[in-house]
Amino acid sequence: MAAADSPSAGLRRRDLCSRGIRLAGKMRSDVMDLLDTYVEWQGLDASASVAAVEGVPVAAVERWDEQTGTQRLLENLAAYRAFRVLLAQMLEEQQEQLGEADTALGRALAAVLLQVSAFTYHLEELLQLESRGTPSEEVAVPAPPSQLGLFERKLRGLGVLRELAQWAVRSARDLRQLAKPSPGISSAPSPDESP
Amino acid sequence: DSHIQYERVGADVTMKCGSMDWDAAVTWTANGTDIDESHLNGSYLILKNVDLTQSGQYSCYEGSSWHLKYQTYLRVGTPPKEPVLMCRSNNYPKGFYCSWHLPTPTYIPNSFNISVIHGTREMVCEKDVFPKNRCHIRYIQLFSTVKYKVTLTVTNALGKNSTTLTFDEFAIVKPDPPESVVAKPVPNNPRRLEVSWQNPSSWPDPESFPLKFFLRYRPLILDQWQHVELSDGTSHTITDAYAGKEYIIQVAAKDNDIGTWSDWSVAVHATPWTEEPKHLTTEAQITETTRASTSSFMPPPTTKICDKGAVVGSGAVAVCWTAGLVLAAYGVLFI
């Protein structure tokens, strides 16, 4: 791990983390706007409860403070790769549904998809820096079940975007943890003490 | 035997003298004072439409022997109204606390039971020693979209009531106000004040969970606040203060990404640096003083004092005129 621990690698990591934090912040802001647009376009109630959606990476995590840097990067990477597929599916459904290539919702979805792709690339760079190599791009995101009605698809989309918004917050936190000086990227930080 | 008896305000209360027959001769006392026979029905004590002042110790004595036959402590009160419940995370991401109170007192002891459910999981809310009506929960999961459901039930001898709060993890995040706010004048700068503060000590990890801040300030003589939002750092220099005017300054904090703003910090007061008055012995010194005096009455660029929307309202025009008159007066004096 000598390369990962060199001063230049440390600077590069902090730089990537800073940029990643800004990307995550912008992404979250845009996803929140997209959520408003989506809810309006799809005629949904913004406070509607959505059950856990199969194939959507869940941001919720236990013992978050005990995760190693590598765990954080790997989980983030897996999540955003899945979101890339899910958003592409939503975009395709949107285009099928409305039959038009260019709608406000379509544009907003495409913009967020672009940011998700950029963030994925960013995470891959960070993992490369840690000499971890990047896991192969095999994302097990099931296609939405064809028997899902239109309303169910809309709710599924709501679930995807909500979870993405959570991930964007989590990613910023993960990258701040990663940017902290530590003896080695693999070492787990000590758990928080009780209040 | 001594008992405690709880009764509602407005209720009619009948007290029996233990196992004494109805027609036994007895004497009742309330807090040691004999009760008039008009309140007795045989050996039963009848209290109609009781009120809070009738709480106390009631004793029944056998007529001739004055043996104590029965004693009870009457507590007059009310069943609980719906409690007021609040939950907040001021130490994110460690956990959150819930606190509660009754909108009106019951005047009798109450017990509180709180349940916290997250999805299918029931969480333990550990009661705080102080304050009493508060408990705290440690987060098991972070970044969850599943809502928390908190139900508080309050029970006393006369009834029970409950309330439920439902919220998500991010919504209740509200830091404590910033601490150690200090405002100082800046030497040789009559329009500046340097303000600094610290993160609230209850916020456990400002490095990973940075706070952003909102500063507000106004001269004491005005009602309208100036606001500045700061995304990082724990200091700020005000550059548009009115020279010589005492300012009141407060700061609030918010997590960079989620939740709501804290309450405002304790207010601090400060007055910008002012030049010491000089003796006007030379023309050059007179000119210098004129320039300094004129600039002190120049409204700062961001001032609201002459704006249409100023809170000062009808007084704003008067202040504008006053400033203009003073400027004109100085101009006339020193031509």
From TrEMBL, chain A:
InterPro entries: 4_helix_cytokine-like_core, Ciliary_neurotrophic_fac_CNTF. One of its GO terms (cellular component) is cytoplasm. One of its GO terms (biological process) is ciliary neurotrophic factor-mediated signaling pathway. Transmembrane segments: none annotated. GO terms for molecular function: ciliary neurotrophic factor receptor binding; cytokine activity; growth factor activity. It is found in: Cytoplasm. Its main location: cytoplasm. The keyword Chaperone does not apply. Keywords: Cytoplasm, Developmental protein, Differentiation, Growth factor, Neurogenesis. The keyword Methyltransferase does not apply. CNTF is a survival factor for various neuronal cell types. Seems to prevent the degeneration of motor axons after axotomy. Belongs to the CNTF family. This is Ciliary neurotrophic factor. The gene is Cntf.
UniProtKB/TrEMBL annotation, chain B:
InterPro entries: FN3_dom (IPR003961), FN3_sf (IPR036116), Hematopoietin_rcpt_L_F3_CS (IPR003530), Ig-like_dom (IPR007110), Ig-like_dom_sf (IPR036179), Ig-like_fold (IPR013783), Ig_sub2 (IPR003598), Type-I_Cytokine_Rcpt (IPR050379). Residues 177-277 form the Fibronectin type-III domain. It is found in: Cell membrane. The chain crosses the membrane at residues 310-333. One of its GO terms (cellular component) is external side of plasma membrane. Residues 10-60 form the Ig-like domain. Pfam families: fn3. SMART domains: FN3 (SM00060), IGc2 (SM00408). GO terms for biological process: positive regulation of cell population proliferation. Keywords: Cell membrane, Disulfide bond, Glycoprotein, GPI-anchor, Immunoglobulin domain, Lipoprotein, Membrane, Receptor, Repeat, Signal, Transmembrane, Transmembrane helix. Coiled coil: none annotated. One of its GO terms (molecular function) is interleukin-11 receptor activity. It is a lipid-anchor; GPI-anchor. Belongs to the type I cytokine receptor family. Type 3 subfamily. PANTHER family: CILIARY NEUROTROPHIC FACTOR RECEPTOR SUBUNIT ALPHA (PTHR23036:SF21), CYTOKINE RECEPTOR (PTHR23036). This is Ciliary neurotrophic factor receptor subunit alpha. It comes from Indicator maculatus.
